[in-house]
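User
New here, help please:
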Amino acid sequence: MNRTNSNCRTRRFLQPNGFTLMELLIVMAIITILTVLAIPNAPKLFKYAHEMSAKKSLQTIQQAEMMYEGYYPNNGFACNLAFLGGDPTAGPPTPTAAQMIKQDLASGSKSGYTFTIGPCTKATGSERITSYAVTAVPETPGKSGDLGFCLDQYATLKSDPTGGTNCTQLIQ
């Protein structure tokens, strides 16, 4: 019986339980290498994400402008982001709170970019707005984004490589 117990003890020590110190050191070295490679690219990735968000937000504003013109034909387009926003719990939509875009975008600031509508053109002898331009500029050029973006009523999206509103390069 003693021999059986001693054999069990030997077998128990031969079976590995958990990781060895060498395996843990290798895993830690791999994680360290990946971290060193990823950290320098993080700011670029954040800028890229902010720029993509700005382009998508401009498309959202453009779609809301088309809906706004359809719902309020006497007004034409909205020349104020707040008009496209509005609190859904405040009651039914109105021309000054159409509830077509979310409040963060309607406030004019989202994902490191500042959004504005203007200049707007009115029809001759009317208050109906017939054209608009939306701009998105980085809140901190070079940090929250490198490019400025512009969009008009024809959904023409252009960029400004300096981060301003002088959009000359067509984006496809």
Observations:
- Strands lie at 109-110, 113-117, 121-122, 129-131, 133-138, 148-152, 157-160, 169-170.
- The mean pLDDT is 88.
- The radius of gyration is 29 Å.
- Residues 42-71 form the longest helix (30 residues).
